[in-house]
Amino acid sequence: GAGVSQTPSNKVTEKGKYVELRCDPISGHTALYWYRQSLGQGPEFLIYFQGTGAADDSGLPNDRFFAVRPEGSVSTLKIQRTERGDSAVYLCASSPGRGGYEQYFGPGTRLTVT
Amino acid sequence: KQEVTQIPAALSVPEGENLVLNCSFTDSAIYNLQWFRQDPGKGLTSLLLIQSSQREQTSGRLNASLDKSSGRSTLYIAASQPGDSATYLCAVNGFQKLVFGTGTRLLVSP
User: Which residues make Cβ contacts (< 8 Å) with residue B45, sequence separation at least 6?
Assistant: First the structure.
């Protein structure tokens, strides 16, 4: 079956602009995660959805970052007033449920803020 | 707060060698541990998942072990090949989110 997909694969934006990054999880997976990976680092957790609700958003760095999953499937990560420090690869993962399930990752969106 | 450390940060070996990558974590209250492979500019490919109740998992030339009480995991790669060149990441699952190490960058030369 299809894996996790993310669009766009690359996004270049100017400082101060608004961006949206999209994630399509594996069909039937109720849990969805966003991570951010800076160059040379391991991914860092941003937010976790179980169904439609954000069960844990403790990794969001500040209030410029927001994510939604209105129908419990596709999720959008939204970044307002982008800064150069937001440049990174944003990874999405999904799993069949909460807890100890394996997480399956998408290819990521590379965001560059100029 | 969970912290994950991977040693070595980089490793270069000739083809055919067996090698061991190390991962340590500070909080033993985990659900599972995953090993991933990441090629340059690409996403993460899951290699092995070890549940907290398990001691090891094997897939082909890969074997991962877990010692939860001491906070350690190892990834053993047998008979390494140039195609194994990549960054290897370990991640521990405390309940819902994965906490990653910074990875080991592996280069296998022909």
Answer: A105, B36, B37, B38, B39
